[in-house]
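Summary of Year 1 activities. Much of the first year was spent building the evaluation harness for sequence design. The harness presents a backbone, in tokenized form, and records the residue chosen at every position. We chose the following record to illustrate the format because it has been used consistently in internal testing since the harness was completed.
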């Protein structure tokens, strides 16, 4: 047991190191007919969770439901210290001003990049580790019972 905990502590330290040097990605957008490059840096997990909580899914917006947050408002709240435009830091006010003038497609490209850094990379890591269960049967006893009932033509219990 002590060895397992030592291994866990080592894994935690390795993850902390990853968080010290977060991933960054860029996306080109057009502003006033000119291409600018927006660089986004991954957030700490707790900061991402707080940001998405402040930008909840809009009712009847399937795209929001898929990603777990309001895709339109989230970029405005992304911390400006994690953004660069053409390689330069921007103030929070300038960031919000930029986001507000972007055409829909450019704003959604930034949103997708933010989601990719903060969610999709971890999902890919799970898949690589063989832990992703998407499309696989659940081990939940409730789900097992539902499958049995369905195979016998019965309705699921509620």
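For this record, the design step produced the sequence shown next.
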């Amino acid at each position: 047991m002590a060895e397992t905990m030592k291994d866990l502590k080592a894994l935690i330290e390795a993850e902390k190191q990853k968080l010290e040097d977060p991933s960054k990605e860029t996306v080109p957008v057009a502003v006033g007919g000119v291409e600018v490059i927006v660089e986004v840096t991954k957030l700490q997990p707790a900061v991402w969770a707080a940001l998405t909580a402040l930008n909840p899914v809009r009712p009847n917006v399937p795209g929001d439901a898929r990603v777990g947050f309001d895709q339109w408002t989230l970029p405005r709240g992304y911390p400006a210290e994690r953004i660069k435009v053409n390689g330069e830091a921007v103030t929070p006010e300038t960031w919000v001003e930029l986001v507000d003038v972007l055409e829909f497609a450019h704003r959604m490209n930034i949103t997708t990049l933010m989601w990719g850094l903060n969610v999709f990379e971890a999902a890919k890591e799970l898949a690589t580790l063989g832990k992703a269960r998407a499309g696989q049967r659940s081990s939940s006893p409730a789900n097992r019972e539902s499958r049995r009932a369905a195979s016998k033509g019965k309705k699921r219990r509620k």
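The chain is about 55% helix and 15% strand. Quantitative recovery figures across the full test set are reported in Table 2.
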